[in-house]
Design a protein that fits this description.
The protein is α/β, with parallel strands linked by helices. It is built from 29 helices and 19 strands. A six-stranded parallel β-sheet has the order 6-5-7-8-4-9, with helices on both faces. It has a five-stranded parallel β-sheet with strand order 10-19-18-11-17. The relative contact order is 0.14.
Length: 763
């Protein structure tokens, strides 16, 4: 690894404190917090970069939930030849449809549960288990150890596909309009409690039209508003309730339980150990955390789960009569699997139950007798042939590999199309879609996942509302969160085949869950591991990082360059120099094809500072359109967890006009500040699923604590032809690669998949 001509090596790296006072930036909100304790408050460590990212993710989630009215006909709308919803709106509407089912189930939780009632029955059984455990009627393991019901056939596979529809222009979603009366009522209560009037809009967005009344009767509902912290909600409650409120008020403890679980979801967890929740409550002056957790479960704020273990000792003794030789109880040497008690929000519980059921349905309803041997023999590589043969005999397949391995799903799609099947590939980003289309040679076969679900791209829906396809390959599968995956699988017809393909080494999804990792770990379907290595010095470097080794690679063409810097100021200067001068001169790669990637949005060399410096050099201007000028590189966040690169074209009374990969997008004026940011510099989470001809990875001294092996693996792999590393973290980089693995996420999908009947799954 060498330095570019004209670059002066530095000596050492020094730490620079993170920007602790920068406001949350919703447009960067798809980056989840990293390496943070989900149960800790984080207020005592405001300099943590993960804390800032967590706040950004919270605001983006609330932003997405407040967009547009819920559509109960989401699937049917996808079949319309001219959908009215934009891509982002339809995606959010599908997620809201799942949440509507949650509300329907909660409203009917006291009704009898019919056997074989599908998703509603499974979710209702969870609530029944919670009530029985809390009342002492039964041990929780009696419910959760019960076998899952057999899957009923949902719908036949469609006979004929509808013709592909032309793409429609995308329009940025607009917030749900709140009535003036609701806003005024919320504003009055907020002012009375000493809270800013500006919270009226987000409060109505989070709590609905009755926000004012809810806040007056339960002031701690303010915690549902993005960015509000417990100490602020406590002050608001004291102003409204006076002496009637205290730290053990049931309203306060229930809201705190929900707040802790929401914070955990921002870090990828779909559930949290009950002990961690109790510890977080104790830190918030709750005198009896156990009672607070029980009350939150009874009120439906959280659901209770038991993972692992057998029946409770008392129940086992009473039912079997087995005791030790002294007659005092079960034999002391009887091994018992430890029981983990988890708490989770019902939205993620429903999504995980739905996803597990849907994946099992695909496994068990697929025709296994398909003969694709001749097609496999003509595959371009042995790994592609193996993938084709495996997919022919399975309804669900997991395929893993690096960037070069993306050619194997492309070969599968082409082979399936040659057999007359309706085969499509869905990528995480528009850039991934273009690369897949180039690999298959047919642009009609490649879609983005958001475009597929919204109906803006792909085959559309059949008469039953299912996606009109026979085979779907999802690339960038690690970017699937549990709610998005549940919506996708629900949209697949019985008999359809699903291939989840991705690189296990990259950063996980911005949303809650670890779908791809859980599917791999559960081993409920065949797995194909690519044997195609990533080529060149960058491929060699990234492959070594994937196994925990930061190797020095030979780069005769300066494909990999290390630029040492002493401090953050020098890091910013060298980055601008690389993008504007050195890389274009040495590699003929223009500045608009070079992407800067850094650890966080705050700090002395975060995305905010870097974007400001790059704008001054590459496209100076007064920022007369809400801080933007024509020609500015931006990133648009149409929905939580999605970052769409674009370029500003113009602005008018309608809003900010962007060109996002050739698609015109208009962002309303009121949404510009929250959903658009400059995009010369991105975080690694934002850059996941995309590649550029050149990448400049910036590692200032204050970035050391945010580094991990998946972060480095993801960031270093974004450059196709050239990678420059602005290096100021000294030994923190090899330490992170060797000893800081991916942050563990607590989820329930793996045990749910392992418990479901999948007789044809691979062992």
């Amino acid at each position: 690894m060498t330095a570019l001509p004209g670059e002066t090596p530095g000596t050492g790296g020094t730490d620079t404190p993170q920007d602790a006072v920068s406001p949350p930036d919703e447009a960067g909100a798809q980056e989840p917090a990293a390496d943070a304790d989900p149960a800790s408050d984080g207020a005592e460590a405001p300099d943590s970069p993960s804390d800032a990212a967590e706040g950004e993710a919270a605001e983006a989630r609330a932003e997405g939930e407040a967009v547009g009215p819920a559509s109960t006909e989401a699937e049917a709308a996808g079949a319309s030849p001219a959908p009215e919803l934009s891509e982002a709106q339809a995606e959010l509407a599908a997620q809201r449809e799942l949440r509507e089912r949650i509300e329907q189930r909660k409203a009917a939780k006291d009704a009898p549960i019919a056997a074989g009632a599908g998703l509603s029955g499974t979710a209702a059984d969870l609530l029944a288990a919670v009530r029985a455990v809390e009342s002492g009627e039964k041990a929780g393991s009696a419910f959760f150890a019960s076998p899952a019901p057999a899957q009923a056939s949902r719908r036949p596979a469609p006979v004929a596909a509808q013709p592909p529809r032309p793409p429609v222009p995308r329009t940025a979603p607009t917030p749900r309009t709140a009535s003036p009366e609701a806003l005024e009522a919320a504003r009055a209560v907020l002012v009375e409690g000493g809270a800013p009037e500006a919270l009226a809009h987000p409060a109505v967005g989070a709590l609905g039209e009755q926000a004012g009344e809810l806040l007056r009767t339960d002031p701690w509902q303010l915690l549902a508003v993005p960015g509000v912290r417990p100490e602020q909600a406590d002050g608001f409650a004291r102003a409204l309730l006076g002496a009637d409120c205290g730290p053990d008020d049931g309203r306060r403890t229930a809201a705190l339980v929900g707040w802790v679980l929401e914070r955990a979801a921002l870090q990828g967890h779909t559930a949290l150990d009950a002990g961690a929740v109790r510890a977080a409550l104790a830190e918030r002056a709750v005198s009896d955390p156990d009672a607070a957790v029980r009350e939150a479960v009874e009120e439906g704020v959280a659901l209770l789960f038991q993972e692992g273990g057998d029946e409770e000792p008392e129940e086992t003794e009473a039912e079997t009569g087995e005791t030790d030789e002294g007659g005092l109880g079960p034999a002391a040497d009887t091994p018992r699997e430890p029981v983990q008690v988890l708490l989770g929000l019902d939205r993620y519980a429903l999504a995980e139950e739905s996803l597990a059921d849907g994946l099992a349905r695909l496994v068990n309803t697929c025709e296994k007798a398909a003969d694709w041997a001749e097609t496999a023999a003509a595959a371009p590589s042995p790994s592609a042939a193996e993938l084709i043969r495996t997919t022919a005999a399975a309804g669900l397949v997991a395929h893993s590999g690096g960037e070069a391995a993306r050619a194997e799903p492309a070969a599968l799609i082409a082979a399936a199309r040659g057999l007359g099947l309706r085969a499509f590939g869905a990528a995480h980003s528009e850039d991934g879609r273009r690369r897949l289309a180039a690999a298959t040679g047919d642009p009609d076969t490649a879609v983005t996942l958001a475009g597929l679900l919204s109906g803006a791209q792909g085959p559309g829906r059949d008469e039953d509302g299912a996606l009109a396809l026979d085979l779907l390959v999802v690339l960038d599968a690690p970017q699937l969160d549990v709610e998005g995956a549940a919506v996708l699988v629900e949209a697949l017809a019985d008999g359809a085949r699903l291939v989840l393909s991705g690189d296990p080494g990259v950063l996980g999804s911005a949303g809650a869950g670890r779908v791809f990792a859980d599917v791999l770990a559960a081993r409920t379907c065949p797995q194909v591991v690519s044997r195609t290595p990533d080529p060149g010095p960058i491929g060699e470097l990234v492959s070594g990082i994937g196994i925990g080794e930061l190797n020095q690679v030979d780069a005769p063409g300066k494909e990999v360059v290390i630029v040492p810097v002493r401090d953050a100021g020098e890091a910013v200067h060298r980055t601008v120099q690389l993008v504007a001068d050195s890389v274009p001169r040495a590699f003929s790669i223009p500045a608009d094809e070079t992407q800067v990637i850094t650890v966080g949005h705050g700090g002395a060399a975060g995305t905010r500072v870097l974007n400001e410096a790059l704008k001054q050099r590459l496209n100076p201007g007064p920022g007369r359109f809400g801080g933007f000028d024509p020609g500015d590189r931006v990133v648009h966040v149409p929905a939580p967890g999605r970052a769409v690169p674009g370029v500003v074209r113009s602005a008018d009374a309608e809003g900010l006009h962007l060109d996002c990969g050739g698609d015109p997008v208009v962002v309303p004026q009121e949404r510009v500040e929250s959903s658009v940011r400059h995009g010369w510099a991105l975080s690694a989470h934002q850059a996941a699923g995309m590649r550029w001809p050149a990448a400049v990875v910036v590692l200032p001294g204050d970035a050391a604590q945010g580094l991990s092996r998946p972060w480095v693996y993801t960031a270093f792999g974004r450059g196709e032809r050239h990678l420059s590393v602005v290096h100021g973290v000294d030994q923190a980089l090899p330490h992170a690669v060797a000893q800081v693995p991916a942050q563990e996420r607590t989820t329930r999908l793996r045990p749910l998949l392992e418990a479901l009947p999948t007789p044809d799954a691979a062992s």
